[in-house]
Design brief:
Elements (H helix, E strand, L loop, with lengths): L2 H20 L4 H8 L3 H8 L6 H11 L3 H5 L3 E4 L2 H14 L2 E6 L9 H14 L7 H23 L2 E7 H10 L9 H24 L4 E6 L7 E6 L5 E5 L14 E4 L2 H17 L1 E2 H15 L4
Parallel strand pairs: 2-3, 3-4
Antiparallel strand pairs: 1-7, 2-5, 4-8, 5-6, 6-7
Helix pairs in contact: 1-6, 2-3, 6-8, 7-8, 9-10, 9-12, 10-12
Length: 298
């Protein structure tokens, strides 16, 4: 069996894990439903699976197609947890990340941002009498922190494209899960947004090795996208899930594909946005002016 085939089985195991997490199932729960041991499920999630009937049973139980689980064509992910787990997996082995995020790349945010984001996600969900939505947010935050830890440990190259319009809204309003927040909380969020903008200025001025940030003044795509460049092939992820203002981690279908045309089209978009973006000192100067114009006083 070739290395390429082994990699394919490993990726199937990764997709299996992501869809299991997205369905809110523990390894024990899924193995019970499948009538297999938990050890057998762990092996499957590591890519040690060879029987098509087991793959079919797993796909049926998780509510995905066999083609989706095997990564044939376009991979669709219908939960935020499943999608961000796939992001973590792709980031674990990629050499470069190119992305357009709103309002800023989560991977480049400060640790303080996580506390604010957790509050915003909780306030954005509907009434939660049984606590299930809050538990989902906690699971999502743990997954996001794991992504950030992976990035900080591996340090792949990253090109982060940031919309100037999104930055200005971020400074004006801070992060908010809804619009009826008390003034005291709104002001605290705006102060936190100012701190994150100053963190971006530090990145622009210090220019850490492997981190490139561009502020885009023209309109950007409505959905965020990321391109993961790997030794074997680039992979594209397009997401309707939002972690910024008025976040959405409940409804949407993300897609992941290595199809040449889709990747090439988005690489062209990224190149065009990067070409016209403000960078380094120019970007830092713009952001300082935006802070003066839109941010709350310290």
């Amino acid at each position: 069996m070739t290395d390429h085939q082994n990699t394919d089985f490993s990726e199937i195991g990764e997709r299996l894990r992501a869809h299991r997490l997205g369905n809110g199932l523990s390894p024990q729960q899924l193995s019970n439903k499948l009538g297999i041991s938990r050890a057998a499920l762990y092996r499957a999630e590591k890519g040690e699976i060879r029987k098509i009937d087991m793959l079919t049973a797993i796909a049926n139980e998780l509510g995905v197609s066999l083609a989706n689980l095997m990564g044939v064509g376009v991979e669709y992910v219908g939960t935020a947890i499943g999608f961000f787990e796939r992001m973590r997996q792709l980031e674990e082995r990629c050499e470069q990340i190119i992305g357009q995020f709103s309002p800023i790349s989560y991977l480049l945010t400060s640790d303080a941002y996580d506390d604010m984001l957790r509050e915003v996600l909780i306030e954005s969900v509907p009434d939660d009498p049984d606590g299930s939505n809050a538990r989902t947010v906690e699971a999502l935050m743990a997954l996001l922190r794991a992504r950030k830890e992976t990035f900080q440990r591996r340090r792949p190259l990253i090109v982060s494209l940031i919309s100037s319009a999104d930055l200005e809204r971020f400074l004006l309003h801070g992060l908010a899960g809804r619009h009826d927040l008390p003034d005291r909380l709104t002001q605290a969020r705006r102060r936190a947004a100012r701190q994150e903008a100053e963190n971006i200025i530090a990145l622009l001025e210090d220019q850490p090795i492997g981190i490139q940030v561009g502020i885009v003044r023209e309109p950007v795509p409505a959905t965020s996208f990321q391109i993961f460049r790997q030794e074997s092939r680039p992979t594209l992820a397009i997401s309707p899930f939002r972690l910024g203002e008025q976040p959405n981690v409940r409804l949407g279908v993300a897609l992941i594909t290595a199809a040449h045309e889709a990747v090439a089209l988005h690489e062209d978009i990224a190149a065009r946005l990067w070409h016209s973006a403000l960078k380094s000192a120019d970007a830092a100067a713009y952001l300082r002016d935006a802070i003066d114009r839109y941010a709350i006083d310290e």
